[in-house]
Design brief:
Number of strands: 15
Largest sheet: 8 strands, mixed
Order of helices and strands: EHEHEEEHEHEHEEEEHEHHEHHHEEHHHH
CATH architecture of the largest domain: Orthogonal Bundle
Bound molecules: 1,4-dihydronicotinamide adenine dinucleotide
Number of domains: 2
Number of helices: 15
Structural class: alpha/beta
Radius of gyration: 20 Å
Length: about 400
């Protein structure tokens, strides 16, 4: 497929990494839609000054977005590919901002999709009668990356070996997966449908699971910098058992739905780690060893807040809970309810996370006097039975 132009939506770590990487790999103009706060202005100034946004570390690229704007009318038209690289809570609002400016035949999607992206995105397209536009999602962000200098330098700590994508219509995966491979510069596997991608979201297991293990017994007393735990390399045997329990429940959902849908892309957690990180894992023999000997995870600490000089507390508002529960674990758990699969491990983690997030992510429907359900669960989009869930996925 010939690409005339790509537009990246977002102004954070992943968006600023993707602009130069896509420009470098595809060689077409790449525009940036950055409507949040004064990001467009800051990126314009930073990249002009630095001669482009520079990606360093495990990936090297440097390019300036051709145009950076907070106005979708200036950057979305003429794009063959529009990529949202944003925290999942910003997907729906951003899609609503861009949807009327998409060209017929364009592809729009999210990297990463997180849970339930296809439900929310299909609804936005339907609201605007845009059945002339293709949808895609990626199972994860291919890079661990952080902005070093805003609008100028992004550092890539590690790259995954392969990432899966799903499309809607599903039959067009053969068109979009090779294009995403070119853009990202790494192999892109095919997931058969958006439901597979939702269940295959391993961040939903790893992030809330480890937060739970690390902090369920926290006594509310701030700790010093030297006591901030390593998030991945500090994984205990008990932590690995919690993660295995969550992964087993996703596999039970897969087993229940396997006869009706192709869910091959929904891999057990250890299998996913080995497939994604390959040689970066020195000892892949157990789930715990696959974490604690993974070079890509070296040095990464648990999210904390400094609550007094030199004193820290867990950051329960960090995306490991605030994103990975409503746009991850709670979605899979809601799917489990439709599939009639019991999920005691998920329920335990979600109950604990809900307490810290101040919202009940176990509920499946709005309840009188409470805030509406915030999670991107299928029930919120009118899919209230297993038959409806399967038929939506099979439409794809
Ligand atoms: P980020 O935290 O850098 O994204 C922040 C950006 O989101 C802001 O700069 C702004 O452009 C946008 N934003 C924030 N609030 C907004 C709002 N209210 N409305 C509209 N836009 C808003 O995110 P990052 O690191 O680029 O991650 C993007 C996605 O990739 C997330 O889902 C993250 O969990 C995932 N991910 C990131 C990894 C990384 O290493 N950066 C690794 C794996 C996954």
């Amino acid at each position: 497929m010939k690409v005339r132009k790509i537009t990246v939506c977002g102004g954070g770590n992943g968006a600023q990494a993707l602009v130069p990487i896509a420009a470098h790999n595809v060689g077409c103009p790449v525009d940036l839609y950055a409507p949040y706060a004064d990001e467009a202005e800051r990126i314009r100034a930073g990249s002009a000054d630095h001669g482009g946004i520079e990606v360093t570390g495990a990936v090297l690229a440097k390019a300036r977005p051709r145009r950076t704007s907070a106005n979708p009318a200036k950057v979305i038209p003429g794009s063959d590919l529009v990529v949202l690289v944003l925290p999942a809570f910003a997907h729906a609002s951003t899609l609503r901002e861009v949807v009327t400016f998409l060209d017929a035949g364009a592809w729009v999607g999210a990297i990463p999709a997180r849970g339930g992206f296809h439900y929310c995105a299909a609804q936005v397209l339907k609201e605007h009668d845009r059945d002339d536009v293709g949808l895609f999602g990626l199972q994860t962000l291919p890079w661990a990356c952080r902005i070093r200098e805003y609008g100028r330098v992004v550092y890539v700590l590690g790259v995954k070996r392969i990432v899966d994508a799903a499309s809607r219509p599903a039959a067009k995966i053969g068109e979009i997966a090779p294009l995403l491979e070119r853009v990202l510069g790494l192999p892109v596997g095919a997931a058969a449908n958006g439901l597979a991608l939702t269940l295959a979201n391993t961040g939903q297991l790893i992030h809330p699971g480890i937060m739970y293990v690390l902090f369920v017994g926290w006594d509310s007393r701030p700790f010093s910098a030297s006591d901030i735990p390593l998030f991945y390399h500090g994984l205990s045997e008990e932590g690995a058992r919690v993660l295995a329990g969550l992964s087993d429940e996703v596999q039970a959902i897969r087993a229940r739905l396997d006869t009706a849908l192709d869910l091959t892309a929904v891999r057990p957690l250890k299998e996913w780690l080995v497939r994604s990180y390959g040689d970066a894992i020195a000892d892949p023999s157990t789930l715990r060893s696959a974490f604690v000997t993974n070079r890509a995870y070296a040095g990464l600490e648990a999210p904390v807040r400094e609550v007094a000089p030199g004193r820290f507390a867990p950051d329960f508002g960090a995306r490991y809970l605030a994103e990975d529960v409503p746009f991850g674990l709670a979605v899979s758990r809601a799917i489990a309810r439709l599939a009639g699969v019991e999920t005691p491990a998920m329920d335990r983690v979600i109950t604990w996370a809900s307490m810290h997030l101040g919202r009940d992510y176990l509920s499946l429907a709005p309840r009188a006097g409470l805030e509406p359900v915030g999670a991107r669960i299928p029930q919120k989009y009118g899919l209230e039975s297993l038959e409806q869930l399967i038929s939506f996925a099979n439409e794809e």
